[in-house]
Structure to design on (380 residues):
C-alpha cells in the first residue's frame, strides 16, 4: 500500500471515529434529558443507541439497519404521542437517521428502493416532531427536522449522481477499449490468415515440380494457424464499429523507441531501455501493440498531469515467465484532481486492455517518490 493510500485509509478511519464520537456526545445529552423528564422519554436514548449501532454497521447492513431504526423510532414517537407526554426528539437518534439517509440515497439499489427508504425517513422524522411535541414546540421541531432531512437527501442524491456518472464513464471507456482491442486482434488474425493463404498457394504451385518443398510450406502454414488461434483466444469481444481505419498488423520495439524519441523532442527527456532477451519475435503481436498503447498513454498522462516533471524513465525487461514495462516520472507530483477521482479514465482503459491479455497493471506512487505505471504480461 502506497503512502497516499495509507494516508487516505487513516483519514477515513479517523473521520469514522469522529462521527461516532459526536453521536456518543448527543446520546449523553439524550440521557440527561431523559433523566430530567422521566417516563417514556427513556425510550429515546434506546433509539439513539440503536441508531449508533446502525451507523457503525451501515456498510454491511445498510438497508436493514436503517429500516430497524425507522421502525423503532416511529414506535417510540407513537407511544409518547399516545400518552400525551411532553417528549423531546432524540439528538443521537435524529443524527443517526440523517447519516443513514445519506448512505441509503448514495448506495442502495435500485434507486426506487433508495428513494422509498429516504421518504420513509422523512415520515419518521415528522412523526418524531409531532409525537414528541414538547410544550407546543412541535412546529419548530418539524421545520428543523425537515430542513435537516432536505440537506441530507440533497447530499446523498448528489453523491449518488457523481458515483453513477463516474461508473457510466468507466463503462464507456472499458467498452471503447474492448472495441479497439477487437479491431486490432481482428487485423492480427487477418494478417496471419493472409500468410496461410500465400503459403498454401505457393505449396500448390511447387507441389508437382518440387515435392520436397511442400513440407516446409506446410510447417509455415501450421505455425501461422497456431498464431492466429492464439490471438483469437485472447479476443475479449467480437463487436466492431462501422469505421474502418488502415492499421498495421502490429508494432515493433523500434516503434516504442520512436515514441519515446518523439516525446523527448517537445517534452521532458525520456530514458528508455530495453533489457536483454527481448526482440520483435519474443512477444506476441497483440502484446507488443498493448505495450505501445500503455507507453503512449503513460507519456500522455505525464504531459497532462505532471507538467513540472524533470525527466521520465521507461524500461522494458524480461523476467522468467513475464515481460514488464515500467514508466516513472520524477520531479513532479501527480495532479491532485486525478488522485481524487481514483485514477483517470485513461488508466481504466489501459487496465482493461492489459487484463484482457492476462496481464496486470499498477499505477501509483513508488517507494522512491516517483509516479509509476507498471504493466506486466505473461510470456506464452
Amino acid at each position: 500500500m502506497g503512502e497516499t493510500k495509507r494516508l487516505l485509509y487513516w483519514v477515513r478511519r479517523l473521520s469514522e471515529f469522529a462521527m461516532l464520537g459526536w453521536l456518543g456526545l448527543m446520546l449523553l445529552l439524550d440521557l440527561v434529558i431523559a433523566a430530567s423528564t422521566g417516563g417514556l422519554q427513556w425510550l429515546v436514548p434506546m433509539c439513539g443507541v440503536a441508531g449508533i449501532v446502525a451507523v457503525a454497521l451501515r456498510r454491511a447492513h445498510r438497508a436493514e439497519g436503517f429500516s430497524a431504526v425507522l421502525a423503532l423510532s416511529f414506535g417510540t414517537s407513537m407511544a409518547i404521542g399516545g400518552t400525551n407526554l411532553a417528549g423531546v426528539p432524540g439528538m443521537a437518534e435524529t443524527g443517526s437517521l440523517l447519516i443513514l439517509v445519506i448512505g441509503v440515497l448514495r448506495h442502495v439499489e435500485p434507486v426506487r428502493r433508495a428513494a422509498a427508504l429516504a421518504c420513509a425517513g422523512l415520515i419518521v422524522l415528522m412523526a418524531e416532531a409531532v409525537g414528541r411535541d414538547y410544550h407546543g414546540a412541535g412546529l419548530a421541531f418539524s421545520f428543523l427536522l425537515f430542513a435537516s432531512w432536505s440537506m441530507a437527501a440533497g447530499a446523498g442524491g448528489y453523491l449518488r449522481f457523481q458515483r453513477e456518472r463516474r461508473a457510466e464513464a468507466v463503462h464507456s471507456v472499458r467498452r471503447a477499449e474492448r472495441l479497439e482491442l477487437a479491431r486490432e486482434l481482428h487485423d492480427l488474425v487477418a494478417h496471419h490468415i493472409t500468410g496461410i493463404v500465400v503459403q498454401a498457394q505457393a505449396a500448390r504451385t511447387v507441389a508437382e515440380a518440387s515435392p520436397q518443398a511442400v513440407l516446409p510450406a506446410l510447417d509455415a502454414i501450421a505455425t501461422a494457424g497456431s498464431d492466429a488461434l492464439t490471438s483469437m483466444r485472447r479476443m475479449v469481444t467480437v463487436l466492431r464499429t462501422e469505421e474502418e481505419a488502415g492499421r498495421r498488423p502490429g508494432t515493433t520495439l523500434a516503434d516504442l523507441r520512436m515514441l519515446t524519441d518523439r516525446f523527448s523532442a517537445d517534452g521532458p527527456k525520456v530514458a528508455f531501455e530495453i533489457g536483454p532477451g527481448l526482440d520483435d519475435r519474443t512477444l506476441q503481436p497483440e502484446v507488443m501493440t498493448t505495450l505501445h498503447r500503455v507507453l503512449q498513454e503513460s507519456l500522455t498522462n505525464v504531459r497532462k498531469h505532471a507538467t513540472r516533471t524533470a525527466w521520465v524513465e521507461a524500461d522494458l525487461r524480461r523476467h522468467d515467465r513475464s515481460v514488464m514495462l515500467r514508466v516513472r516520472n520524477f520531479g513532479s507530483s501527480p495532479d491532485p484532481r486525478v488522485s481524487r477521482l481514483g485514477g483517470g479514465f485513461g488508466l481504466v482503459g489501459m487496465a482493461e486492455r492489459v487484463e484482457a491479455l492476462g496481464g496486470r497493471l499498477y499505477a501509483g506512487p513508488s517507494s522512491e517518490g516517483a509516479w509509476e505505471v507498471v504493466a506486466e504480461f505473461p510470456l506464452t
